Structures are given as C-alpha cells and as structure tokens.
Amino acid sequence: MNYYLDVIKRYADFQGRARRQEYWMFLLWNIPIVIVLTILDYALGSYPVITWIYTLAVFLPSLGVSVRRLHDTGKSGWWYLVSLIPFIGFIWMIILMATEGDAGPNAYGPSPKQIAA
Which parts form a coiled-coil structure per UniProt (predicted)? Predict the structure, then answer.
C-alpha cells in the first residue's frame, strides 16, 4: 500500500526515475480498486460515475509513474505515446515497463535502487 500512496503523493511529478516495483505495485492496487468501484457503481445504479471520478483523480499520478518508469529504462516520457498504437502498443508498453532499469545514473537521475539501499 505504501507504493500506491507514494505515487499518489507525487501527484504530477514527471521528474526522476521509478523502480519496476513501484510501478507494478501501484498497478496491483489500482486494478482491484477500479473493479470494486465498478461493482459499487452497478450496485448503486450510478453506472460509471464513481469509477470515472476515481479514474480521473488517478490519471496524472498514473501517467507520472509511467513516465518515471520509462526514465528508469533510459527512455523519454514521450515513449508513452507508443501505447496509443492499437494492440501492439499495449504489448510494447508492458515489455518496456517490465524491462530492468539502468544500473547506474542516467540522464534522468540516479538509480532508484541505489537510493533505496
């Protein structure tokens, strides 16, 4: 849960680098929250209202952690636009997000693994 809250605290921070663990733990918490909110929407008969509000609220933190994750692999945040390519972009983005980051410092800052250690 700490990883999720750390991403939320860095709301619109696109600077620096994010470890794989930070990105995937945020995603691991975000998906069940969306599922629960969707079920709640249907139970209350409000269809997608609560889910859309939540999705809009976490859009910038989600984008921020994705850009920082790309920075960790030495790529610009603009690479996120690859995800807009139908089907192939989604697969490519999963591969990029699962790729190990640069071991040492790169153009986007020091390695987050070295900072955490």
Answer: none
Per-residue pLDDT of the chain (117 residues; tens, 9 = 90+): 788 999 999 988 999 999 999 999 999 999 999 999 999 999 999 888 999 999 999 999 999 999 999 999 999 999 999 999 999 999 999 999 999 999 889 999 998 887 655
Q: Which residues contact 102 (CB under 8 A, 6 or more apart)?
A: 72, 73, 74, 111
Cα gap 108→77, rounded to integer Å: 10
The rounded distance, in Å, linking the Cα atoms of 110 and 115 is 7
Please check whether residue 73 is in contact with residue 18, taking contact to mean a CB–CB distance below 8 angstroms: no
Number of separate domains in the chain: 1
How many CB atoms neighbour CB 63 within 10 A? 14
Alpha-carbon distance 42 to 72, whole Å?
39
Domain range for residue 87?
A: 2-116
